[in-house]
Design a protein that fits this description.
The complex is a heterotetramer, with two copies of chain A, one copy of chain C and one copy of chain D.
Chain A (H helix, E strand, L loop, with lengths): L1 E8 L6 H12 L5 E14 L4 H16 L5 E7 L1
Antiparallel strand pairs in A: 1-2, 1-3
Chain C lengths: L2 E5 L6 H12 L4 E4 L11 E4 L20 H10 L3 E5 L1 H9 L5 E3 L7 E9 L15 E8 L3 E3 L2 H9 L3 E5 L10 E5 L5 E4 L17 H11 L1
Parallel strand pairs in C: 1-2, 1-3, 3-4, 4-11
Antiparallel strand pairs in C: 5-8, 6-7, 6-9, 9-10, 10-11
Helix pairs in contact in C: 1-5
Chain D lengths: L1 H4 L4 H6 L4 H11 L5 H10 L2 H4 L4 H4 L9 E3 L6 E4 L4 E9 L1 H6 L1 H17 L4 E11 L7 H19 L3 E8 L8 E11 L14 E6 L9 H4 L20 H15 L4 E6 L4 H13 L2 E5 L12 H6 L5 E6 L4 H10 L3 E9 L3 E6 L2 E7 H4 L28 H9 L8 H4 L10 E3 L6 E4 L6 E7 L2 H6 L1 H19 L2 E10 L6 H20 L4 E7 L3 E2 L2 E2 L3 E10 L16 E5 L10 H6 L12 H16 L6 E3 L4 H13 L3 E3 L7 H6 L6 E5 L1 H13 L4 E7 L3 E4 L3 E4 H17 L8
The chains are: A alpha+beta, C alpha/beta, D alpha+beta.
The complex binds adenosine-5'-diphosphate and magnesium ion (MG).
Chain lengths: 79, 79, 221, 738
Amino acid sequence: MKARVFITLKNGVLDPQGKAIGHALNGLGFASVGEVRQGKVIDIDLSETDAAKAKAALKDMCEKLLANTVIEKYEIEIG
Amino acid sequence: MKARVFITLKNGVLDPQGKAIGHALNGLGFASVGEVRQGKVIDIDLSETDAAKAKAALKDMCEKLLANTVIEKYEIEIG
Amino acid sequence: MKAAVIVFPASNCDRDAATALEAMTGKKTAMVWHQDNELPAGTDLVVLPGGFSYGDYLRCGAMANQSSIMAAIKAHAEKGGAVLGICNGFQVLTESGLLPGALMRNAGLKFICKPVALEVTETQSAFTRNYAAGQAVTFPVAHGEGNYVADDATLDRLEGEGRVMFRYQNNPNGSARDIAGILNEKRNVLGLMPHPERAVDPATGGSDGRAMFQGLIEALS
Amino acid sequence: MTEISTDITPAIVAEHGLIPEEYQRINTLLGRAPNMVELGVFSVMWSEHCSYKSTRVHLKTLPTKAAWVIQGPGENAGVIDIGDGDACIFKMESHNHPSFIEPYQGAATGVGGIMRDVFTMGARPIAMMNALRFGEPSHPKTRHLVSGVVSGIGGYGNCMGVPTVGGEVNFHKSFNGNNLVNAMCVGLARTDKIFLSAAKGAGNPVVYFGSKTGRDGIHGATMASAQFDDASEEKRPTVQVGDPFAEKLLLEATLELMATDAIVAIQDMGAAGLTSSSAEMADKGGSGIELDLDKVPQRETHMTAYEMLLSESQERMLAVLKPGREAEAEKIFKKWELDFAVIGVTTDTHRFIARHQGKVVADIPVTALSDEAPIYSRPFEKRAPMSGTPAYDKARPVLASLEKLMAAPDMASRRWIWEQYDNSVMNDTLQHPGGDAAVVRVHGSKKALAITTDVTPRYVKADPVTGGAQAVAEAWRNLTAVGATPLAVTDNLNFGNPQKPEIMGQIVGAIEGIGAACRALDFPVIGGNCSLYNETNGEGILPTPAIGGVGLLKDHARMATIGFKREEDVVILIGETKGHLGQSIYLREIEGREEGACPPLDLAAEKKHGDFVRGLIEAGRLDTVHDLSDGGLLVAIAEMALKGGMGASVGQAAIADAVGFWFGEDQGRYLLAAPFAEAEKIVAEARAAYIPVAELGRTGGDAITLNDKDSMALKTLSAAHEGWFPRFMSGEEIPVRN
Ligand SMILES: Nc1ncnc2c1ncn2[C@@H]1O[C@H](COP(=O)(O)OP(=O)(O)O)[C@@H](O)[C@H]1O
Ligand SMILES: [Mg+2]
């Protein structure tokens, strides 16, 4: 089973990278670009076949390692 | 309009970060975890309202700045 | 030799490069702002210095590559002018396509600052002419993303054409084939992760870098 | 505006960290009840952090003057004169709590904050140090904290292009729930271009520049209170995130603005952000200030006056300009792509006034926030110092203990850390981490600055007065050991809860000791910082008054380093060796006990021995010196051997107690190595000056040999010394202390 985990900064947490990317895109002439936020995407191969169990394990992984829950939030996608 | 761009390493390009994460997850007892790859997700607010135009602009942004196509590939999601 | 050092936002070895050049040439080095469109008339050598241009955000060197000065640098290289990219400068050069490949996160995932032993593998360039082939030199490294990658065909070609100029003796960052520095096809653009400009004074980082600048002075004056 | 009309309940007052008496005092000073915004302003200005209410009466006793002191405590950083029109500006500050919550960002923003304190005075930062304390290595959080703090310091400092050249790291269980992250920044300016924070004069524009203001770091408890629930989710307080890229631009832009003569006063926005920077500037200038909060560059929507005034968003500065110079300044910040806004004006009303959306949201006499802030003489209890000499096994083989000590968490090589810091950028680093003091050249000159941070918390715990003095003496000794003349210190007083008489006793004692040592060594205090309430579950940390010292080498060609350099050099010990093992590293690591009296300190001998050693280095007669501290004599010899890649054969006839001799931590001692002829002269001169001196042996070989009998290969020692940190951090080893 393949899973995708998104780790993004919580709302309100400053995102210096996103800010700089937005600025650079505007500078390149992409005037329609407003706020930009950058996060991580982590693709995980799982040998687990039960979707519910996989989801629970992924949640656990996010809490324990993948996300820094002080400043980040996460979403899990199983596909 | 909100868009999400995924930047991930091309197949075959070594991903030391992904490898380290996989290793750490195994170490934490998540035995079902196989290969792990890490990429970026960039969320962009666009004032553009035409989806086709937005898509074209996003493609252009990826080619010009967001991805290094020597080692990375990108996917665009508009939603 | 007239040298110009490019200053990007958050370049931070720009002064070090200029100081080293001035010590070697006895002449003032031009500091060129990234938003300029032209190099000073008569520039022989362009140095893209180390640092964290644009904070290394998104990818090292990616945003600096979009600066307006880059067109002038490409034109300078095209005409055969010498370009030296050190550390972040090397990253800008690969982003710009002036050099092949890319620089990724160090294999150990940590920033590394220490003197490293290098082998000068090729002497056929203005940058390395004053070294002996196979000479061992020590330059400091200071980078988090110096892991050189390219596909096998590119690597074979770099080696086959004698364009791998410096190799690590103890690979600190996972670079393919221990590559520390490479040259472009026309042999006038060098990019390397170690800092030769931090090796021009025995009181600080040794003096193995002097031969590079001396070679450039001789070749370009 | 709900926040103005909200009734202030005792619960709200308490959530703002104010006691009822303090709230009453606010009412008296204002002649009315404060509104919520005003309460917020008072709460931060009267906080321990900003007002030093528990420590001020004691800090006043510290010596702060010397002929070379240009600016003592009271500004963003202290300033000393280092000759030729050059000034050195430095300061140390803590970011303990944020680094425990979010180690990477907490440490990173700590680095950013202290750099701003230094460049806001006109200096270009040229060196960074960090003094770190973590819980025991076996504690489950320790590795994560070490890793996050170190990469946060590197992540920020490396991007700034300022070399991080040294620091200190200890592990102890008292820090399990409360690590310490103290960062020090040293900068260079010209003596005639030093910028202060006194906003003198009325009618001058107040300008804001740097990054935008968000809801970062606003006091958690106050934010949780009910009146802020209209746009709830968006309004939660958030951890401060550092943006070193913005800071680098801010540094360059600020220095560019300083090259004009447009600035009247300038101050970074640190703790309590806009409030403290503006109120302090008005206070020091004897003026008033009016802010129009609608003009503040904002990162988020619907920010309230309360939030803007209390936000601790990073990478922001406030300046008062001469009238009419706004456009010139704006042009500079545009060039560097930073926000710039005129947000207020100075007045002659002596009031701090903030307007938001057309209404006055705060109107407070400036002195109510400064001079009228509460000052406490908190009760303190000075406990009798710990005493006695603990028993230990005198027959334990010395070299086996040495190997163990070299790999102890507090003694092992810190290479794993310092290689993650760019320590050679700026091309002026003459001594990298790993020596007694870092040495950084004054660019383009023969001069160099030596920098160190020191404190031995276990000594301070055993005896606050002696421990405080010892921290100063050790800093002074480290600077001396490289050949520098020690000039001044900044302190960072990390303690537990000052409302406990025992802790307050530690604070008072440590300050007394620091003051005494600084006076005796002519080493004034020119700045500092206090971090109190470092407690978890009612247990305070080991008292940790960190001392950051700076010294000057007039000619860096005459500098000493610790590594042995030549075979057959004579190894000389300066200072008296009694074999004091109380509170020693040996006792803790080998015997497993933290007991006894800390070593006594003789400040007169300290000065005499140091001046003697420095004189030899300055005369060009001596290039190999190491001061003795943790682990004592044999550890110092091992360090000199490992650094130089050369062994030594040392010993003495008739050592009564080998353990005490080799591992005792008697103070005021140095090890020197010099060629025979020079060594003979040095020994004779020391004797003539009544300085205790002993020849211990000769350098050479690839082992440490004791009394021509037992020896241990440098390879073995090196593996022990270099191996522990990487193994610990890779998770291969979680050592449990015996
Ligand atoms: N422990 C101390 N010893 C001496 N001076 C101190 C001490 N603590 C604080 N100070 C001085 O008090 C002033 C205010 O300190 P602080 O609030 O930490 O500065 P800032 O507002 O720049 O962060 C500074 O000048 C500082 O040097
Ligand atoms: Mg300050």
